[in-house]
Design goal:
Two copies of one chain form a homodimer. Chain A is an alpha/beta fold. Chain A contains twelve helices and 20 strands. In chain A, the strands form three sheets. In chain A, strands 2, 3, 4, 5, 6, 7, 8, 9 and 10 form a nine-stranded parallel β-sheet that branches.
């Protein structure tokens, strides 16, 4: 049923293999973030699930992957101290790592945890979403001291350099990476005398794709790279041909006098995530022709300029509009594949296999 | 499981009753748009389903409501000419109305339709999403002439004045409404001699909520009013207390030095729809306290300022931040309730009933 999310399994597998190879070459552990695909089937493309460490973005997602055979899971959102029952239950069947960034949560965890868990202290290196500021040594020391408990294995410091997403060039991604990892290395140096086994876990997709040297990091946790998207392409994380998913949509109307066509594909399919077109307008996706069950290179200067609940509007050159027929299918490369996949709740591979995500 | 979408059934029923009463008073038919709630349960709150005319935004949604007992359904997106089989099947069990805005689609429909259907010609009165421009009389005449067929009942002209959503005041909503309905009335006057039964179907939520006189219109099709949201409140369509849904989220972290708290509630729950805060920043939701299973008035100057996949960031005054505990639940009034409901795929009522939406 249209619209549907088409997945090029070969591109996806190649993205996985390249990142795994890079991690191996750099000597860091690979703990991919499974929030992007949310699928046990795609998760299995990373290799043997019983030995594959993974990362997820919610307790619910951890429960889903644990039920599907993954046993080493980092839940990379600060824990809700009122969900100890679910955390204990999950910790009884899988090796889980939790994020803590406050004394309140550390104290509550120590009181309520009945199974062995790993804990990372979440550190903010400049993104300012979550975490303790990397220079707040006294508070970090206090939180660490509150985490002393036989069921708690202090894993180290975890950070998400999410400010790389606002970069205007690969050079800026590298620069944010350098300053962020430097902060973590200094932090680790402060605490290694007292906590000799502390590790550093990092890993946004822009850094992991663009940076050539992860020296000092112990583990990377990129997620989006499995599909990539227009945002990553614009950041320089990938080639446009590495994008592994496209929304397949029918053309419903043509408005030649304003160089627009209307598609059935809206905010409930693509999400309202946008990036800026070079003409200064919002862009919700790139547009490709779709022939013989595959998408081809993107149509020059064509983009999704507007989305409502089910409708999308594409701007394109008049000669391309003329070539386009009502009823024809087009392929839209999403701006943010994590959100598009979450909305579509499943994939169709190029050879017609249907892949479901967690509900 | 958190986050969940809480629905105040009393507010929702009151929103429905008020709109029905207004339509009755104004002498127009009421064909509510069910895309906002996508739920047979909530649909039944509008009254007897076998006599309730409705509007939906996709063929799939039409199939869902037809399977649940509604028999008079307008599908308010231009039809895809490659889906005649599904259209014929649906038309064999329900009275459906389709939108046509081109000669190509009109011709294709005439060739392929095997059951009686109603058809509206979609007219653009200035929103510029879909439809034939209201002043393009020759093209409208040609499309009408292509729709002559024993299975086609020409219903009239249908328009969505979606440009009301960009208004900066209720006065501007009224002004867009006036100019748009005037265009439709002139159009109808042109064609009434040849097509004496043409009707006018209109109805975005801002117009239907704000305008006091629908003279000349035959039918209104608002949808969002069933829940309203922050966008509608800002437009002047409703009071903030009329908003009937709120996302219930736990507080995960506090960052007092930047007046921010972190919630588990992100783009996959609220959607990335935003409106502008009066301080010039993006706003993804208003924030209310949540006590005894209900949300109270919104916290002054508090708003969701940033969303990633699962995390949300709330800005709030320091005295409000101090009063807030990690683990506490807050209620977020969504910017666009249609998109939030679609993402959450269900509701919990104040008395604990779980309401599912179509899948």
């Amino acid at each position: 049923m249209l619209p549907y999310l088409l997945l090029d399994q070969r591109k996806c597998q190649s993205n996985i293999d390249k990142m795994l190879e890079k991690a191996t070459k750099m000597g860091v552990s690979f703990r991919p973030h499974f929030k992007t695909h949310q699928s046990a089937t795609i998760g299995s493309w990373f290799g043997n699930k019983s030995s594959q460490a993974i990362c997820v973005s919610s307790l619910k997602m951890a429960e889903y992957f644990a039920a599907n055979g993954w046993i080493d899971i980092t839940i990379s959102i600060p824990i809700n101290p009122n969900e100890h029952n679910r955390i204990n239950k999950l910790a009884s069947i899988a090796k889980i790592n939790l994020l803590v960034e406050s004394i309140e949560v550390a104290s509550s965890l120590v009181k309520n945890i009945h199974h062995k868990v790993g804990v990372f202290v979440k550190i903010d290196c400049g993104y300012h979403r979550t975490g303790i500021s990397a220079d707040n040594i006294p508070y970090i020391r206090t939180v660490l001291s509150h985490l002393q408990h036989e069921n708690i294995h202090l894993r180290g410091f975890l950070s998400h350099f999410g400010n790389t997403y606002s970069s205007s060039s690969p050079q800026e991604v590298k620069s944010i990476y350098s300053s962020s990892i430097q902060q973590l290395l200094e932090l680790k140096a402060q605490f290694i005398p007292d906590y000799p086994n502390l590790q550093l876990s990092i890993g946004d997709t822009p850094s992991c794709s663009i940076v050539d040297d992860f020296e000092g990091a112990d583990e990377i946790r990129p997620g989006n790279f499995v599909f990539y998207d227009v945002m990553q392409w614009k950041l320089g994380s990938c080639h446009v041909n590495d994008i592994a998913v496209a929304l397949i949509v029918p053309v419903l109307a043509k408005h030649a006098h304003r160089n627009e066509i209307v598609i059935h594909g809206g905010a409930i399919h693509l999400s309202k995530e946008f990036t800026m077109h070079e003409n200064g307008e919002k862009m919700y996706g790139l547009v490709c022709r779709f022939t013989n069950g595959k998408w081809t290179e993107s149509i020059e200067n064509a983009y999704v300029c507007s989305l409502s609940q089910e409708h999308g509007i594409i701007k394109l050159a008049s000669q391309e509009l003329e070539k386009t027929q009502i009823g024809e299918l087009l392929a839209i490369l999403p701006v943010h594949s994590c959100l598009t996949a979450n909305l579509m709740n499943g994939f169709q591979t190029l050879d017609g296999q249907i892949i479901r995500m967690m509900l």
